């Protein structure tokens, strides 16, 4: 199974009670750090079924969920069918471009699937409006044991250090605000999750 087919296979059972609770917690922390007060045009990159991003959609004037997995997007679309300001697009932003701009791009647990996360920051900066922000949630550097099958699940990075994200920010001419916002306990280990805000 490859990364894309993994998510298509998993889409129907993705929203477990544990994942719903975890993503809500991460979104609540993100909301606080971003201090969102006004409506923004928002993109959720690697939106999946929307567990993380849709928690923030009340602050969106428009909300676009972007993902490469048709199965995940089907689940996302079922949840948002009645929300006129929310739409989705099947798109691989590493290979394609998007003809829209945003005030805020959020992303949760998708960057570790990218071939070049640093290039993605540059690409996202180009579709960000002046004063806009990128808010990336992912794993702090880990030892490769967080996912049960890295190759099958399309995991290309075992988390990221703050230092390497400082380099991404420098390359893109942006500033980084890095915070550890959560800890996950499994495999008798503690894995940390960060929120990286680029602006
Ligand atoms: C671990 S899931 C996280 C889903 C959601 N953000 C959440 O927090 O519940 C990662 C998602 O990123 C998507 N993804 C992986 N690579 C991608 C890419 N290059 N472009 C867009 N989406 C991608 C996958 O299809 C999957 O839905």
Which tags fit this structure?
single chain, 199 residues, Rossmann fold, 7-stranded mixed beta sheet, 5 helices, 7 strands, globular, binds S-adenosylmethionine
Any idea what the CATH architecture is? 3-Layer(aba) Sandwich
What ligand molecules are bound, each kind once? S-adenosylmethionine
Helix/strand class = alpha/beta
Which regions have little confidence, pLDDT < 50, spanning 5+ residues?
A: none
Q: What letter string, H or E per element, gives the SSE order? A: HHEEHEEHEHEE
Beta-strand residue percentage: 25-35%
Q: What is the CATH topology descriptor?
A: Rossmann fold
Count of alpha and pi helical runs: 5
CATH superfamily: Vaccinia Virus protein VP39
Oligomer: single chain
Give the SSE layout.
Elements: H1 3-10, H2 17-34, E1 40-45, E2 60-67, H3 70-80, E3 86-90, E4 102-108, H4 117-126, E5 128-139, H5 162-172, E6 176-186, E7 189-198
Parallel strand pairs: 1-2, 1-4, 2-3, 4-5
Antiparallel strand pairs: 5-7, 6-7
The structure holds S-adenosylmethionine.
């Amino acid at each position: 199974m490859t990364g894309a087919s993994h998510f298509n296979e998993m889409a129907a059972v993705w929203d477990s009670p544990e994942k719903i609770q975890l993503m809500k917690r991460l979104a609540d922390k993100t909301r606080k750090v971003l201090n969102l007060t006004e409506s923004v045009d928002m993109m959720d990159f690697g939106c999946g079924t929307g567990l993380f991003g849709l928690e923030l959609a009340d602050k969106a004037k428009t909300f676009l969920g972007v993902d490469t997995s048709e199965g995940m997007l089907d689940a996302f679309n079922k949840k948002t069918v009645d929300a006129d300001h929310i739409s989705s697009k099947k798109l691989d932003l590493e290979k394609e471009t998007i003809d829209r701009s945003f005030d805020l791009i959020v992303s949760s647990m998708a960057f570790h699937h990218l071939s070049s996360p640093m290039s993605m920051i540059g690409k996202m900066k180009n579709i960000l409006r002046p004063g806009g922000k990128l808010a990336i949630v992912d794993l702090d550097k880990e030892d490769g044991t967080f996912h049960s099958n890295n190759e099958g699940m399309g995991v290309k990075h075992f988390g990221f250090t703050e230092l390497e994200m400082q380099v991404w920010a420098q390359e893109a001419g942006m500033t980084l605000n890095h915070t550890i916002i959560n800890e996950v306990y499994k495999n008798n280990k503690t894995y940390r999750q960060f929120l990286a805000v680029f602006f």
